[in-house]
Amino acid sequence: MTAMPPLHRLKVHEDARGKLVAIEGPGDIPFAIGRVYYIVAGDGSSRGFHAHRTLQQVMMCVHGSCRVVLDDGRARSEYSLDRPDEALAVGPMTWREMHDFSPGAVLLVLASDRFDEDDYIRDYDVFVREATGGAA
Ligand code: TYD
After folding, report:
1. pLDDT at position 56, please?
2. Cβ–Cβ < 8 Å for 56, 2
């Protein structure tokens, strides 16, 4: 990941018709896009609870809101995503949890690669061990 701050604002083209937000790479995001997916909130249940060994992602709540917890194995940060022009960068070896989805919220995710289950770490203790080099 580059030195891009985790949370940054995208340019909005807004007029009476509404808002248009464009994302161009490279520049707006720090990797070539290999996959796009989106989550549409259901019953508001939390999601995520995993890290990726190599995958880079940028997420935006393009409709509604949610709260994202990022954890590098030593410290946790929380972000409220509640505007369509706010992009949260999530680097490799970052445990993520998404909570408090508002009804019908849509979380759009840009990812650096295709879906690969082998890149996932789904056990928090394993993640902390790998992220801290076994120090934790
Ligand atoms: P899951 O990992 O449970 O989502 P979350 O991290 O938001 O809790 O993914 C749900 C299902 O979707 C699971 O069967 C894997 C599948 N999936 C894909 O097929 N492609 C993808 O790009 C993603 C992210 C998930």
Report:
1. 97
2. no
Each domain of the chain, given as residue ranges in start order, spans 7-132
How many A from CA of 15 to the centre of ligand 1?
35
Residues with catalytic function? 50
Distance separating alpha carbons of residues 59 and 47, to the nearest angstrom? 14
* Overall pTM surpassing 0.90 (yes/no): yes
Atom 5 of ligand 1, nearest CA residue: 48
Q: How far apart are CA 67 and CA 77, in angstroms?
A: 10
Enter the CATH code of domain 7-132.
Answer: 2.60.120.10
Best of 36, 37, 112, 121 for a ligand 1 pocket test (most atoms within 8 Å of beta carbon): 37
pLDDT at 135: 60
Instruction: Compute the distance from residue 114 Cα to the ligand 1 centre, in Å.
Output: 12
Distance between Cα 56 and ligand 1 center (Å): 15
